[in-house]
Amino acid sequence: MSAPIVPLNGATNADPASASGKSSIRQAAEGFEGVFMSMLVGEMLKGTDVEQGNPVYSGLMTEKLGDQLAASGGIGLADVLEKQMGGGTADPAPPTDGTT
Fold first, then answer.
1. How far apart are the C-alpha atoms of 43 and 26, rounded to whole Å?
2. Contacts by 82-87 with C-beta closer than 8 Å and gap 24+?
3. What predicted TM-score, i.e. pTM, was given to this entire model?
4. I want to staple 70 with a disulfide (CB 3.0 to 4.6 A). Which of 32, 33, 44, 47 is the partner?
5. Domain that holds residue 69
6. Under 8 Å between Cβ of 66 and 34
7. How many CB atoms lie under 10 A from the CB of residue 56?
């Protein structure tokens, strides 16, 4: 029998959302934005030398580039999705003293 694989930092994999400090809603929103950004990158690379190369490598590159773009802020889609799914903080209430 083989021993289970233990992470180097000693953390357990009980709940990946709590380990990264992000809620599952936020992770889902960022994942969706990553897929969307990967699709955009794939379309932008059509007709280039990258697309003409090995399809496995070009597919991996577009996927990882899209994920990195989303993780670094992306186009704000993850923020909107998180708010729509009830995971984001609500906008502050407008002032009640009549000022705008």
1. 26
2. 82/25, 82/26, 82/29, 85/25, 85/28, 85/29, 86/25, 87/23, 87/25, 87/26, 87/29
3. 0.60
4. 33
5. 22-84
6. yes
7. 8
Asked if the structure places residue 14 within a domain, the reply is no
Domain tally, the chain = 1
User: Which DSSP symbol is given to 98?
Assistant: S
Q: Rounded to an integer, what distance in angstroms lies between the CA atom of residue 66 and that of residue 59?
A: 11
Measure the CA–CA gap between 83 and 47, rounded to whole angstroms: 37
> Mind listing the pLDDT tens digit for each residue in 35-89?
999 999 888 888 888 777 788 888 888 889 888 888 888 899 988 999 998 876 6
